[in-house]
């Protein structure tokens, strides 16, 4: 018997936790949607991306409909009085001219919109509607069910069976999310046709898995792990339940290691490894695929600290309802030391603080020019930070020149705790990389000399951990103009002589010429204005230097 039936969901909604969750959703619905008509998706906002690069205005209203769908599907299980409103939002979504967001919809070669493209959002939307139709069946009006079927046929099935798509050559989260959305659309709504596309769907999942490191590390960032691996799991969970066939890919060593990577990426207090375009906090990560991952792989991932809340970016809350009574033990600090060899990322969890540093190269998925960048956390507070992802705009994915401009900020090496060498920043590309010179207990040393376009005789950094904090020891030889050692924080630093105080963390330098503080404002992933401070230790007109920095609590 398939898990996500209306009857099983109804039972879950009548449990103590189920009622509590549904009451929270009722309150959220009343505050945000009850007396607010479904907003029209206007062309004036749709075209903003191509005119100004802004994605937010249109996408906010696009996702607003799916959040409404998210809430109403659960409430309609809890109380069938909500069914009419659920049908209204389904009708509105089916009536959209395209399920593709503007950033993925425009064909620059022909100067036209590709309304029948299949992107992440089109695939997800199709999956949501197919699953709602499957779960509610005859509880929905026949015309709504026909409307769903027609939309899925016209936007997904006819397109997929007669075309190939860009995501079918990609191995990142697109391969997983799009393959899952399309695959579940077939399994739910067109099961008789699934075998026609099965090999393509499975192939997409294999491509996604092939881009993860063998040790499970996801270079796109933890947020994208939740996204990509979450949909990977959703697909195979439903496939397993509907067909009774457990695919061998679920026993793949990379899959098992990837689950462990997630368990050990949790740093505590809603904080996660923030490297690349990964998000730091849980606000955008409360993905209801997580209970499915826990169930299918016997894992203990808890990304939202056990709070129910409202999932604002995915219409997957039927799973949260089904697994509402699932008990998950927090898996914070399951390992004290983690080293991901291929990506050269070290995570050290001490009793007093957490330290993260990366090497790698500057051509990774969702790349930032961040070789040698490190972060220090204590009790959920970020002292030395990686700023994570910025607001997604046209320029953010507009090519090397725009992505790594100072205006974009977060992708530039100036936004990371790495040196500025002879006045130059790190550059994009596989030719810019780090080497791990040695690694022992509580110590790692990187060669950073190949991260910059100018050639120096030597540029190394050695990180040593002790009970009170971290020591970063740099050695540079063959400089032409000098070097600036830069450290990034969201906390405004206080400078007194050669001492710098960041919150309650003291920074002491063995060598001081000049200390400057630069203030940067940037728009974070949620389009919220954020301030970062760069503490610069500037050394001019020197060719060689040994400099040590102690970051102590």
Query: Which strand order does the major sheet show?
Result: 13-14-15-16-23-20-19-18
Examine the secondary-structure arrangement and name the CATH architecture of the largest domain. Alpha/alpha barrel
Alpha-beta content class: alpha+beta
Number of individual domains: 2
* Radius of gyration, taken over Cα atoms and rounded to an integer in Å: 25 Å
- How many runs of DSSP E, i.e. beta strands? 23
Alpha plus pi helix count: 15
Mean pLDDT: 90
Give the termini distance in whole angstroms. 55 Å
CATH topology of the largest domain: Glycosyltransferase
Q: Show unreliable segments.
A: 282-286
Shape: elongated
Q: Mind summarizing the main beta sheet?
A: 8 strands, antiparallel
CATH superfamily of the largest domain: Chondroitin AC/alginate lyase
User: What is the CATH class name of the largest domain?
Assistant: Mainly Alpha
**What percent of residues adopt helix (DSSP H or I)?**
25-40%
Report the sheet-strand fraction.
15-25%
What features would you describe in this structure?
- It is a single chain.
- The chain is an alpha+beta fold and 553 residues long.
- The chain folds into two domains: 6-322, Glycosyltransferase (Alpha/alpha barrel), CATH 1.50.10.100; 337-552, Beta-galactosidase, Chain A, domain 5, CATH 2.70.98.
- The chain has 15 helices and 23 strands.
- The strands form six sheets. The chain has an eight-stranded antiparallel sheet with strand order 13-14-15-16-23-20-19-18, with no helix packed on it.
- Strand 9 and strand 10 (381-384) form a beta hairpin.
